[in-house]
Amino acid sequence: MKIAVVGAGYVGLSNAVLLARQHDVTVIDVDADRVDAVNAGRSPIIDRELEDHLARGGLSLTATRDRRAAYADATYVVVATPTNYDPDTNRFDTSSVERVTAQALDVNPAATIVIKSTVPVGYTATLRERHPGASILFSPEFLREGQALHDNLHPSRIVVGSDTSEGHLFAKLLSEAAEEEDVPVLFTGSTEAEAIKLFANTYLALRVAYFNELDTYAAHHGLDARQVIDGVGLDPRIGTHYNNPSFGYGGYCLPKDTRQLQVNYDAVPQNLISAIVEANTTRKEFIADDVLRREPKVVGIYRLTMKAGSDNFRESAVQGVMKRIKARGVKVIVFEPELEQKRFFNSKVIRDLDEFKAKADVIIANRRTDVLDDVAEKVYTRDIYGRD
């Protein structure tokens, strides 16, 4: 089967590699460097299993910038383009999804469009109305950046928002490509599938916010946060997973998905969803204030990335902390090997770790790392368990 995947980011490339183990897949991206990297067997993003699979070869995978040729004979066109949250419109910017869908159906009306991009609740139904007779379905992804292919090879569930033959076949493609047996498969309406995605991510954000607020309380009252979290987590209904305090939830998905769900609640009574969004802001303010209580002259930001094994720092919580510290007139320097520029938000980027350690009075690190052990007295972190 021939499949076109639009977008060589985490979602698109991991799905392309997953499906290319058994099918002919063409991944389309506007970035020539990404296209060249994939064709050379290199991953343009940091993801260990993606890197291994591309380097090892044996995939029926081609990357291109030529959309029309890729659409022409594709049975499925998987749309994995960005849908950034637009603060001016208070919703996801779905223009890339609309553009790709229209282009693909213009070239190949028989193709089934599978939307993997995260979209507002009710969006797919609206898109179907714009393209009567077309086969368009939504199938949410549930992956972690830096472990995208792993999470597609070992999925917790497969959700397809279409109880049709095309939907069932697509679910079968994903199930057959996975390395797990008996993966739960759920067929729903498209709007329900969209809601599953947003509610799942908002619950994850809720859990992050909850343990962060627990940690804020412990810090304020001089309690041992670990003892409290350990005791709370021993209740099997709560558990000991996803409970490590941080500077706040961040990355590409959680901040925008929680805000989009809040907008979808426009005419529906709610308190909790808005509280989750607001809690993230409160946590960053607490962290900044807690750092400033140490009266540093220079604050060092050790890594902008959200977690180990990722090159992404889109909306990382530490950036919000950094901006608040700078707003109080304190100098900030940044150690981030993934940055090519010399300055980040008008703060100096230092690539020499020893120089960075020497210049910073306080070093902010979202997660502990042994490379900072020699300056442990300078390190500020809320990390308890040494994991994401």
From TrEMBL:
InterPro entries: 6-PGluconate_DH-like_C_sf (IPR008927), 6PGD_dom2 (IPR013328), NAD(P)-bd_dom_sf (IPR036291), UDP-Glc/GDP-Man (IPR017476), UDP-Glc/GDP-Man_DH_C (IPR014027), UDP-Glc/GDP-Man_DH_C_sf (IPR036220), UDP-Glc/GDP-Man_DH_dimer (IPR014026), UDP-Glc/GDP-Man_DH_N (IPR001732). Gene3D superfamilies: N-(1-d-carboxylethyl)-l-norvaline Dehydrogenase, domain 2 (1.10.1040.10), NAD(P)-binding Rossmann-like Domain (3.40.50.720). It is an enzyme of class 1 (oxidoreductase). Its EC number is 1.1.1.22. It catalyses: UDP-alpha-D-glucose + 2 NAD(+) + H2O = UDP-alpha-D-glucuronate + 2 NADH + 3 H(+). The keyword Cell wall biogenesis/degradation does not apply. Residues 300-387 form the UDP-glucose/GDP-mannose dehydrogenase C-terminal domain. Keywords: NAD, Oxidoreductase. It holds the Pfam family UDPG_MGDP_dh_C. The keyword NAD applies. Pathway: Nucleotide-sugar biosynthesis; UDP-alpha-D-glucuronate biosynthesis; UDP-alpha-D-glucuronate from UDP-alpha-D-glucose: step 1/1. Transmembrane segments: none annotated. Belongs to the UDP-glucose/GDP-mannose dehydrogenase family. This is UDP-glucose 6-dehydrogenase.
